[in-house]
Amino acid sequence: MARLLVVEDDAEIGELLRSSLALHGHDVTLAADGRSALDGARTAAPDLVLLDLGLPDLDGLEVCRRLRLLQPDAVIVMLTARAQEMDVVVGLEVGADDYLTKPVRLAELVARVRAHLRRAEPAVRADGPLELGELSVEVGARRVVLHGEEIELRPKEFDLLARLAEEAGAVVTRETLMSDVWDEHWYGSTKTLDVHVAALRRKLGEASGCRIVTLRGHGYRLDVD
Length: 225
Ligand code: CA
Description:
By secondary structure, the chain is α/β, with parallel strands linked by helices. It has helices at about 10-25, 35-45, 60-70, 85-90, 105-115, 155-165, 175-180, 190-205, and strands at about 5, 25-30, 50, 75-80, 100, 130, 135-140, 145, 150, 170-175, 210-215, 220-225. The chain is elongated.
């Protein structure tokens, strides 16, 4: 059973989120403001945090940054009130793994939570390390080494890089990436894919000889010198 922390100051919405996630077998704790969220994260060590951006005490972005430091392995899904707000938050790259706009569709929420918690099934079927020039992706050990240095990646960043590396030099479509790395029944926005690509590009570095190329409206391609 996964431990979930729902941070939402609107009691009615909070209870709705809590009960639908509990119904799907998760152990859910509810926090009504930023400070209790941080306390809850310290004591309960959640696997996933659903975090509302608009909180009465602390800014949701600040809570996200602090949560990331407290629980580096927790998946953080931010809830934003409007699509425009989501664009701003995504641009800030505060360390969230995913974003959902309100009003939240419960089926979508449950599907996304399941997709994030599903780590046992690797997105890539390769056995040994994928060796591409100076880049080595060790699928079994979930390790990435570039120019002899290990790169720290979030779980979905790793899955995404491994999936692209499996077909390096070829385009992998957005649909394939969403289905293989996240979930075959992904609902709604695929902005989370672009956020993960941006994070990967930053971590791989500009001069690494390792580039993720955007093919607009189609997908992404990993090129390694
Ligand atoms: Ca709120």
